Amino acid sequence: MSDFPDLPDLAVRTLGGSVVAASDESFEEKENLINPWAPEFRPATFGPKGQEYDGWETARRRPGPDGDYGHDWAVVRLGLPGVIRGVVIDTAWFTGNYPPHASVEACGVDGHPSPDELAAAEWTEIVPRAALQGGTAHAFPVAVARRFTHVRLNIFPDGGVARLRVHGDVVPDPRPLTGLTVDLAALENGARVVECSNSFYSAPDRMLYPGSARDQSEGWETARRRDGGHDWAVVRLAAPGTVRLAEIDTTHLKFNAPGHVTLDGRDARAGDPDDWTPLLPRTRVQPDGRHRFRLDGGPEVTHVRLGLHPDGGMSRLRLFGDLTPAGERALADRFAALTRREG
Asked: b or e along 79-108 (b: 16 or more beta carbons within 10 Å of the residue's beta carbon)?
């Protein structure tokens, strides 16, 4: 089984995804496809259109004069464009009204295209037409190694889908980043947590999400340590750079924030995985608040290790700084290699 579900969901609403068009949403709204929470269901909850579902549901199709039923579809703009490694089509709670088959296509379009412009784009099939079952999360690996900005879910002929998850690697457009101070730890800029000591309550990547956490669940939180050690997470930066300002945000963590934090950096290109340079010494932090620390004179790094002493949670981690010339080249080369301009 592929581990692609551990990668970020590029389409989720939390990361800026949007369902920009759909052929039909007679029963349930298309926007439900990318809700961040698990699908919910309350039996015998009837509205003006029938039983209510937490998903997207279309009307029953009838054959046309030629006997063809046609099919329904929904177009999703990825909040974070990137290389799609796998797709999950979840029919949770749809048991008598799920589509028997589905497929997924993707395209890469510059700028901010309208639905009509997307309809005219060049689409690539990334999940061939496959059979579905009701009440099931279907995982489909994707082997097309190219940067995409939109996906189109096709269902045959109609029915309900609770969630569409589009997991992959973020590939940012380097043009808004080069020459500016940027958040080198932002998920939307291509950073990832590649190692951590503990993710009992939530995944550490969440502290790299855009915007502010709305509650305690939207950050990273570890279990309580009993061994005298401390927790940590290693962030692979968006590209090589120098960190000049660290923002340590413990918002919503009122009784489970760490007492102190540390930051260390290393350049993975140097070859020594244990060669960490202190960027921020052990520093006290307070619960439920944002802390900013200047990090002047630090070295060029590719990875930063955040230490939580002894344990706890982190709402957001921001590492503002400058891409080095090597970092700018790395972003530009990756973008060019994975992007095919649509005609």
From this structure: bbbbbbbbbbbbbbbbeebbbeebbbbbbb
Please say whether the beta carbons of 151 and 84 come within 8 A.
yes
Name beta bridge partners: 77.
Answer: 18, 150
How far apart CA 240 and CA 247 sit, in angstroms, is: 19
Question: Which token pair is 73?
Answer: 């579809």
- Distance, CA of 14 to CA of 51 (rounded, Å): 27
| Amino acid symbol at 173 | D
**Residues linked to residue 70 through DSSP beta bridges, in sequence order:** none
Rounded to whole angstroms, the Cα distance separating 268 from 277 reads 12
Q: What is the Cα–Cα distance from 220 to 202, expressed in whole angstroms?
A: 5
Which tokens in the block code for residue 142? 């994707």
Report pLDDT digits (tens) over 79-112.
Answer: 999 999 999 999 999 999 999 999 999 999 999 9
Tokens of 126: 């990334």
Contact indicator for 192, 177 with CB cutoff of 8 Å: no
Q: Which amino acid is at 62?
A: R
- DSSP annotation string for 208-223: GSSS--SSGGGSEEPP
Instruction: Report domain 181-323's class.
Output: mainly beta
4-170 and 181-323 share one CATH topology?
yes
Q: Does the domain made of 4-170 have the CATH classification 2.60.120.260?
A: yes
Q: How far is CA 209 from CA 163, 185, 320, 328, 334, in A?
A: 20, 9, 14, 22, 22
Tens of pLDDT, residues 238-250: 999 999 999 999 9
Which amino acid makes up residue 266?
R
Measured from the Cβ of residue 5, the count of other Cβ atoms closer than 10 Å reads 14
Is the entire prediction scored with pTM above 0.90? Answer: yes
Q: Please state the φ and ψ torsions of residue 240, each to the nearest 5 degrees.
A: -55, 135
Q: What span, in angstroms and rounded, lies between the C-alpha atoms of 166 and 127? A: 11
Q: What is the domain partition of the chain in residue ranges?
A: 4-170, 181-323
